[in-house]
Amino acid sequence: MPKAIRISKTGGPEVMEYVDVEVGDPGPGEARVRQHACGLNYIDVYFRTGAYPQPLPGGIGMEGAGVVEAVGAGVSHVKAGDRVAYACRPTGAYAEARVMPAAGLVKLPDEIDFETGAAMMLQGLTVQYLFRRTFPLRGGETILFHAAAGGVGLIACQWARAIGVTMIGTVGSDEKAELARAHGCTHTINYNKENFVERVKEITGGEGVPVVYDSIGRDTFTGSLDCLAPLGMMVSFGAASGPVPPFSLNELASRGSLFITRPSLFNYTAKRADLENSAADLFSMVTSRKVRIDINQRYALRDAAQAHSDLEARKTTGSTILLP
């Protein structure tokens, strides 16, 4: 029988169990995928801990790549034998094989291998919507991006360089700063040594930046607002340090009529046309070598708990995959 990671309760990495699962035939609108690699993302931690609720017992993981084994009635955009990748709900990607909604699958170009496909979809599509749609960058802007040496961050460094954007990135160590700069980040700030608000003001001549992309949450939120120029946009797309506490809207007015948004990839790719267009843009950036996907950690699927422990301890850089 195929193996998968399942959770029956929320908690630490130890709640994940490596078990046999029954994988049946796909129903209407579904596909069965034999997975070659699964992606690891911080959103998986949110589901594991219960920060994002889901029915239990259940699966975990939202990203993978493999080959379609069968499709159900009404599925025409993919067929058995197609190489595919995805980043979508419901959870359950940590598995050797799974039945899932076919609407979330996109065909993987031959030039992109399965490991890269599994490592790039959620993080790459996140950068795509952040840079192309949430606050569209046209080149020439100076931006602040937190966690610049993480999986999303390293893709953002390269994407920013490719479109002529000056990126200021925060990191937690000198080694991570060097990594971010090697991938195209113009200025790096080690938040364990420097005050990132003061450094951003210094770099921008006191003006601040038009947009901050913040996946850290509680620890950086107020500082991020302080880095914005008047009428700037705060994009809060994650909460690695914990959720942002309640705040008064007057905080936005007092800093210069700021804008704020809390986007989610799954709203930006809910429509099939949007998913295909976003994926095509991402695939083009990767196949043209403007963006390279760095897989810096590989774990066996059975070692998912260790992978989560390392992710939460900030021991990882770039992308991480689980291998069935």
Automatic annotation (TrEMBL):
The keyword Oxidoreductase applies. CDD domains: QOR2. Keywords: NADP, Oxidoreductase. Residues 11-322 form the Enoyl reductase (ER) domain. Pfam families: ADH_N, ADH_zinc_N. InterPro entries: ADH-like_C, ADH-like_N, ER, GroES-like_sf, NAD(P)-bd_dom_sf, QOR-like, Quin_OxRdtase/zeta-crystal_CS. This is Quinone oxidoreductase. The lineage of its organism: Bacteria, Pseudomonadati, Pseudomonadota, Betaproteobacteria, Burkholderiales.
